[in-house]
């Protein structure tokens, strides 16, 4: 299972990308991912805790600190 599949299974939403491209040639044997942005990824998810080597990020809500 890919990190993308895992994130979606755990409740994340792919805003853009979120898939492995298929070229129809020898590149299909490579390790390629679409540039991807996810939201709603749980903080305990492997997607958040482990480094993904590729054009992938997640957007997380936060509360601003009071001054």
Q: Average pLDDT, to the nearest integer?
A: 89
- Let me know the largest β-sheet: 3 strands, mixed
Which structural class do you get from the secondary structure elements?
alpha+beta
- CA radius of gyration is 14 Å
The H-and-E topology, N to C, reads as HEEHE
Strand fraction band? 15-25%
Number of helices: 2
Q: Which word captures the global form?
A: elongated
Output the strand order for the largest sheet: 1-2-3
Describe the structure.
The chain is an alpha+beta fold and 67 residues long. It has helices spanning 3-9, 46-49, and strands at residues 13-16, 36-39, 56-59. It has a 3-stranded mixed beta sheet, with helices on one face. It is elongated and about 55 Å long. The N and C termini lie far apart (43 Å). The mean pLDDT is 89.
Summary?
This protein is α+β, with helices and mostly antiparallel strands and about 70 residues long.
């Amino acid at each position: 299972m890919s990190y993308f599949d895992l994130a979606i299974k755990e409740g994340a939403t792919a805003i853009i990308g979120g898939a492995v491209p298929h070229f129809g040639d020898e590149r299909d044997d490579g390790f390629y991912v679409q540039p991807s942005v996810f939201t709603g990824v749980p903080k305990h998810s492997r997607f958040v805790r482990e480094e993904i080597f590729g054009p992938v990020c997640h957007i997380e809500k936060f509360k601003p600190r009071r001054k």
